[in-house]
TrEMBL record, chain A:
Keyword Protease belongs to the record: no
The organism of origin for this protein: Actinacidiphila acidipaludis
Residue ranges with Low complexity bias: 279-297
Residue span(s) of domain ABC transporter: 21-267
Lineage per the UniProt record: Bacteria, Bacillati, Actinomycetota, Actinomycetes, Kitasatosporales
The protein, known as: ABC transporter ATP-binding protein
Keywords: ATP-binding, Nucleotide-binding, Transport
A Pfam family the protein falls into: BCA_ABC_TP_C
Cited PROSITE patterns: ABC_TRANSPORTER_2
Alphabetized CDD domains for the sequence: ABC_Mj1267_LivG_branched
Region Disordered, residue ranges: 267-297
Molecular functions per Gene Ontology: ATP binding
UniProtKB/TrEMBL annotation, chain B:
Keyword Transmembrane helix appears in the UniProt entry: yes
Region (Disordered): 605-629
Compartments reported by the entry: Cell membrane
Keywords: Cell membrane, Membrane, Transmembrane, Transmembrane helix
Record-annotated membrane-spanning stretches: 37-55, 75-97, 109-129, 141-160, 216-234, 240-261, 295-319, 326-347, 353-375, 446-464, 497-517, 537-564, 571-589
Protein name: Branched-chain amino acid ABC transporter permease
Membrane topology: Multi-pass membrane protein
Pfam annotation, one family: BPD_transp_2
Provenance organism: Actinacidiphila acidipaludis
Record keyword Membrane present: yes
Length: 297, 629
């Protein structure tokens, strides 16, 4: 895999280390269910941040709040210091791109067209220009295509440019989602379980890809259940349990936190949101095997 | 993958794979030579029968009593049988005819035989039914009946190619046994197999032909198409037209199963500019090919509904918004043009805009109307949008009905509409008059046909250019997955509104001509569903039938839906019923429409560049005997 991503660095990248994303007190309620409870999260530029938690913890819901797909019940999300309006296309325009847990490609478009759609916010040509087809149109179209092909080469899909997205194997569909997201020239990329359904080799390749993306000055916030992947990759990991942020810190801190292990096994812990459903406590055996596995990694 | 040379492949009948497809054991188990002989014998008998008399009386449409030369429906049988015989000879390896089946499959022969069988049996049964019994058949009729059957039986004894993913014979067989109707199910299975997808066909690359030869082929095919079209329009009786439709539809299907259509598509794609020029010239030639006002009127009407359907295709096919009130925009354009036409019934009876200004006004008004309807409704999704547009469509008609000076202000003259719209005059060329061009005369409808052709070309250009651009891609993205599209930075509401307004403007443009062609505008045609063509259901059906998201699909769909009921006069009472049946059949058997979207064609893996093993075109280069098995 090539590690050169052709990328025009945005001016703000110069201010490395600055805060990119800041979510403050985000709460998301669906009727009586509070899926996200008062979560704060910051992502600084150049960082890879992991977001983990058991199934149903509210990770995807939190992503949706960040990207404007959901309007948070309370709380604000700001990017580079300005508060984001809860409209997905404006969030993307501001510089946050995302992928989806359940792949959402444009199935009947070609791979290249999928990436071209990702360039929508960074190009201007409207209907009139498309119909008249002046030199400006051709120039812009050519530039878009070149850039899209570069991204396909970067993700290793260049030879599949003319295939329909629906005909790609699963792993390549996930890569294409990443290429499409990168096409919007984001400063922050949100990945929702990028390795779900992948085999170990593909997961390794995705790891490389995420590092390569970070090396281009794009910060990454990634949800993943594969702990080895997360702990290899992330500078910082936040743990979400039942909608609440339980712990945040470096891989070591999170890995060795009793409460995290307990949460994954459904054991009640100090300060857990007193919740309606009594989750059965796991046996000690289970706990030990899991922690062993995690130590193995 | 290497293609097996024909001879070798035929030895390996039931075994696997020429062309990457599986070759199946034939439906009727006969040795290959016997099967071929039967097919050819059937073709010969059928051809011979068309020179005999089929019935005693001249009461049957088209006079089939004459011995010595074919007439009426016999011509359809003759064409079908000759085509089947010739293609079969080519498929069997007769040098000089092989180009008719570039894919070297027997599937096309089976379908052509089916076309012959269909039209022949239809004729014989029609004679018996119309004239009251088999007694009315001459021996020739029986010979035809048997000949077509032998032909079809012979074709059923040929091994077919089938797509590897289709269920195996055994599965169908089991299914058939379980349901106790094995013969029917197996027969159905065989017909399914005859239906190889376009992209599954491996054909020699037609682009290797000499450039000039390629262009010659394009010209010949277009000319032949025009000839076939005018031939069909010239049929005098519904019966003959039905026979014509059977031969045409199943015959084209058969030729396409043999790979000819795919090669032709390669040619047109390779000579894009040339073939579109020839296409336009062919369309221009239409009113000259038939110096007949009736057909010119038909042509103009088809172009109007086709153009409007193409506009609707932007909204429905590209953007995926179900608009059930689209015909209202045609109405807005027509009424606008009528108001500024100088008609004595217009409230501005003094003002007469030149055509370009009227056209712009019609487009502008439709566009404004589109934005007004779109702005509040496009935030809705799916079914809600459909219901709301349905309502707005009706509201338009009711408002126009009531703006008569009694129930409301006098603008549209209510139910009486605006009559006596004068004919257009463009650069001093009055479209209402008859003009002579050389030895041809162009009547009123021919003039309007040519004007409409210009407008259709404009709309086609707008459609194709818009579809292949940033905005067009965003429409398709919205259709595919609106949530993902907005997450990719697309302002869903805005691009949907642009699609809606553009679609409305194009309908409005067609409407301005429509008003002049029909001389008057009244509110009644602008309904959701009715038996007279421009209504929303008709337009939607044209798009779905022809192929959503394609350029030629809606135009073809509109042409079929407009012309077929006109030619089949007995349908008049059952038109909507037939319409519904046709749509159900299309949805069941060909949901992508007659002309599938390029995207659908890509669905199966395809390699655009010819595989190294592919034969170049031309018979002499095919090594017929080298073993490859
Ligand atoms: N639109 C919605 N309406 C109602 N409840 C919802 C909605 N979306 C999510 N939820 C609920 O919110 C909770 C959090 O779901 P979410 O999908 O965010 O979990 P997750 O952490 O992403 O889990 P997983 O690891 O399985 O992807 C779940 O209980 C879910 O049922
Ligand atoms: Mg999730």
């Amino acid at each position: 895999m090539t590690t050169t991503i052709p990328q025009q660095p945005t001016p703000a990248d110069a201010a490395a280390g600055g805060t990119l994303l800041q979510a403050r007190g985000v709460i998301m309620r669906f009727g009586g269910l509070t899926a996200v409870r008062n979560v704060d999260l910051t992502v600084n530029s150049g960082e890879i941040v992991g977001l983990i938690g058991p199934n149903g913890a509210g990770k995807t819901t939190f992503f949706n709040c960040l990207t404007g797909l959901y309007v948070p019940t309370e709380g604000t999300v700001s990017y580079r210091g300005t508060v984001l309006p809860p409209k997905p296309h404006l969030v993307t325009k501001a510089g946050i791109a995302r992928t989806f847990q359940n792949i959402r490609l444009f199935a009947n478009m070609t791979v290249l067209e999928n990436v071209l759609v990702g360039r929508h916010t960074r190009t201007r040509e409207g209907l009139f220009s498309a119909i008249v087809r002046g030199p400006g149109f051709h120039k812009a179209e050519r530039a878009s295509r070149e850039r899209a092909m570069e991204l396909l080469a970067f993700t290793g899909l260049a030879d599949k440019a003319e295939h329909l997205a629906r005909n790609l194997p699963y792993g390549e569909q996930r890569k294409l989602e990443i290429a499409r997201a990168l096409a919007s020239e984001p400063g922050l990329l949100l990945l929702d379980e990028p390795t779900a359904g992948m085999n170990p080799q593909e997961t390794r390749a995705t790891e490389e890809l995420v590092f390569a993306i970070r090396d281009q000055g794009i910060a990454v916030l990634v949800i993943e259940h594969d702990m080895r992947f997360i702990f290899n990759l992330c500078d910082r990991v936040a743990v979400l349990v039942q909608g609440e942020k339980l712990v945040e810190g470096t891989s070591e801190v999170v890995q060795n936190d009793e409460r995290v292990i307990a949460a994954y096994l459904g054991e009640p812990f100090e300060g857990a949101p007193a919740d309606e459903d009594g989750t059965p406590a796991a046996t000690a055996d289970d706990a030990s095997t899991t922690s062993e596995q995690e130590n193995d990694r | 993958m290497t293609d097996l040379p024909i001879a070798a492949a035929e030895e390996a009948v039931a075994a696997t794979a020429t062309h990457g497809n599986r070759r199946t054991a034939p439906f009727i188990p006969l040795p290959l030579t016997a099967a071929r002989a039967t097919t050819l014998a059937g073709a010969v008998i059928t051809i011979a029968s068309t020179f005999m008399s089929w019935t005693y009386t001249t009461d049957f449409p088209g006079d089939l009593t004459v011995s010595g030369y074919p007439g009426g429906l016999q011509i359809m049988t003759l064409i079908g049988a000759i085509l089947t015989g010739v293609v079969a000879l080519g498929t069997f390896g007769l040098t000089g005819l092989r180009w008719l089946t570039p894919s070297r499959t027997n599937n096309g022969v089976l379908l052509l035989a089916l076309a012959t069988l269909g039209t022949t049996w239809y004729t014989v049964i029609d004679i018996a039914a119309k004239l009251g019994g088999l007694a009315n058949l001459d021996p020739g009729g029986f010979v035809a009946f048997i000949g077509a059957l032998v032909l079809f039986a012979g074709a059923l004894a040929l091994p077919l190619d089938r797509h590897p993913e289709e269920p195996a014979d055994a599965e169908y067989y089991e299914l058939g046994r379980a349901e106790g109707i094995s013969a029917v199910v197996r027969g159905y299975a065989w017909l399914r197999e005859a239906r190889l997808h376009h992209s599954e066909l491996r054909v020699p690359d037609a682009r290797k032909l000499n450039r000039w030869l390629q262009r010659l082929v394009i010209v010949v095919v277009y000319a032949l198409g025009l000839k076939i079209l005018t031939f069909g329009l010239a049929t005098d009786y519904s019966d003959i037209f039905i026979g014509y439709l059977i031969v045409l539809a199943v015959g084209v299907w058969g030729l396409s199963a043999g790979g000819l259509l795919k090669q032709f598509q390669q040619l047109t794609q390779h000579n894009k500019k040339f073939s579109s020029t020839v296409g336009v010239l062919t369309a221009i030639a239409y009113p000259f090919a038939q110096n007949n006002e009736l057909w010119a009127n038909l042509g103009a009407s088809v172009l109007i509904v086709g153009t409007v359907a193409l506009g609707l295709n932007i909204v429905v096919g590209l953007t995926g918004l179900l608009d059930l009130g689209y015909v209202a925009f045609l109405g807005v354009g027509a009424y606008t043009a009528a108001l500024v036409s100088g008609s004595p019934f217009s409230i501005w009876s003094g003002t007469q805009f030149p055509f370009w200004a009227a056209a712009l006004a019609g487009m502008g008004a439709a566009c404004v109307f589109g934005v007004l309807i779109g702005a509040p409704t496009l935030r809705l999704r799916g079914d809600y949008l459909a219901i709301v547009t349905l309502g707005f469509g009706e509201i338009f008609r009711i408002i126009v009905r009531n703006l008569d000076g009694v129930s409301g202000p006098k603008v549209t003259n209510g139910p009486n509409g605006i009559a006596q719209i004068p004919d257009l005059s463009i650069f001093g060329y009055n479209l209402g008059d008859t003009h002579s061009v050389g030895s041809f005369t162009l009547g009123r409808f021919a003039n309007y046909y040519l004007l409409m052709l210009v407008i259709t070309i404009i709309v086609v250009l707008v459609f194709t250019r818009a579809a292949d651009s940033r905005i067009g891609r965003s429409w398709i993205a919205i259709r595919e997955d609106e949530t993902a599209a907005t997450a990719m930075g697309i302002n869903g509401f805005r691009v949907k509104l642009v699609a809606f307004a553009l679609g409305a403007s194009l309908a409005g443009l067609a409407g301005t001509v429509f008003a002049h062609v029909t001389n008057s505008v009244v509110p009644d045609p602008y309904v959701f569903s009715g038996s007279v063509p421009p209504n929303s259901a008709f337009l939607l059906a044209a798009v779905v039938l022809g192929g959503m998201g394609t350029v030629s699909g809606p135009i073809l769909g509109a042409a079929l839906l407009y012309v077929i009921p006109q030619k089949l006069s007995f349908l008049s009472q059952y038109e909507l019923f037939a319409f519904g049946i046709a749509l159900i059949l299309i949805m069941r058997f060909r949901p992508e429409g007659i002309i599938p979207n390029r995207r659908r064609q890509l669905e199966f893996h395809e390699d655009e560049t010819p595989a190294p093993g592919n034969r170049p075109m031309g018979d002499d280069t095919v090594p017929a005997t080298t073993a490859g098995a």
